[in-house]
Amino acid sequence: MNFQCKNCGGNMVFDPDSGKMHCEHCGGFDCETQRGDRSVTVCASCGGEISAEANVSATKCPYCGNHLVFDERVEGSYEPEEIIPFTVSKNKAIELMKKTFKKRTFAPKGFLSSLSFRELKGNYVPFFLYDYDTMTDFDGVGTKVKTWTKGNTEYTETSYYRILRKMRAKFSKVPADATFLADDKMDLLEPFAYERLVKFMPKFMSGFEGYIYDFPSSTYEPRIKGKISNDISGLLRNSYSEFSGVRADVLETDFGEAKSEYALLPVWTYFYKFGDKTYDIYVNGVTGKVVGKAPVSKKKVLGYSAFFGAMIWIIGQAAMLLLEVIR
Ligand SMILES: [Zn+2]
Ligand SMILES: [Zn+2]
After folding, report:
1. pLDDT exceeds cutoff 60 at 301
2. Based on the structure, what is the number of domains in the chain?
3. What is the model's pLDDT at position 105?
4. Of 119, 81, 170, which Cα lies nearest the Cα of 272?
5. Which pLDDT belongs to residue 107?
6. Cα 278 to middle of ligand 2, angstroms
7. Ligand approaching nearest to the C-alpha of 32
8. CA 233 to ligand 1 centroid distance, Å
9. Residues with Cβ < 8 Å from 182, sequence gap 6 or more?
10. Domain with 143 in it
11. Ligand 2 centroid to 63 CA: how many Å?
């Protein structure tokens, strides 16, 4: 399908600045009509056969330049339940990248040139968002050490405490990207602004690239459980922070049944070729967060340090936490 202007017949695309459908030809807003109900890779506008890869769900027709969405790739089991429409426009993404990499004086000249920015693409990336209601049992021993001096003698008293915890933690919308894009970089883009999730409508994809998920949601469950386990460990540590050392004898988490939703999240991608390497930079299409490393020109001085340090996964995604402490 594609979206056409009722007034002039121009191609209508989703405009992140206004949050409306915009006619690139006459400048009209929200005056679109949906067209085309044809075979998956035929352009609804010019009839041209498009050789899009099997995982592409939205793209630009190479013949007429109209943006289109492949019906069969956003329907049935491939129909996303929700989407966060872009709020960061292409110009805004460029501005944010320039700001982020302004101090990268060792980057090659062409890195942030307008020519290279042709490679900047707005993608709707398929994600699965998982809900888990977990129950963790912990049994361990904590130590407290007290030292004091009396006369010429130093005394040390070590006390041992049994620590029992039964902790219920509910997690909601823990994301896993379901594409070829680098998992670690996608993790760094988090959190997306989940309050901006809306019911999926194909029109939001007009003007952007879109993909379908590579594998069903069960494939990504181990990854999500790993993320959640780290969080649970952190919550447990907070609950016995008064001890100087803790030995865990039992640490078991029951994850229960996974619930997942299929959602499309907005990401600007920029793949910059330099030498024999491709540098991938990402801009979160709703928060504007920039992730990636600038290439370093060998001609310039070395001594460049990594821009992004530790990966932080926001615990704030835990919607509700019920902590039951047995002493
Ligand atoms: Zn128009
Ligand atoms: Zn076409």
Report:
1. no
2. 1
3. 65
4. 119
5. 74
6. 30
7. 1
8. 55
9. 280
10. 129-174+216-260+312-326
11. 5
